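Morning, I've got a small favour to ask if you have a moment. It would help a lot if you went through both lines with me. Thanks so much in advance, here it is.

***
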Amino acid sequence: MARRSRLENRGRFHQAMGTEAKRGFSELINGDKPVVVDFTATWCGPCKAMAPIMEQFKQQIGDRAVVLKVDIDRNPAAARHYQIQGVPTLAIFKRGGIVWRRSGVMSAAELKAAIEPHLE
């Protein structure tokens, strides 16, 4: 059975899932507003640890940036395209390009410091 995918608003941050989200994802990352993408997997322990950190980060930056979560198992094409070798991998996109990328668990303060230069 094929999985249906969509871009959903999950309260504080969005989850990009599968091919139906591709157009919305592309539009978001090509915009002027920075987009923080958390490449993750449901089976990944460190990814689970990042979930509350990402929520805290989103609260800190508000609507100055978009925060997305991309499940690499549901989106293998995205994982290949962005050469995701391990999870969690976090990337900041702006105007279609990756302006920052890092793998592993990090604090909300580290994320905030990484995005600050890209906020207008």
In short: The CA atoms of residues 49 and 105 lie 8 Å apart. The two ends are 43 Å apart (CA to CA). Residues 1-20 have pLDDT under 50 and may be disordered.
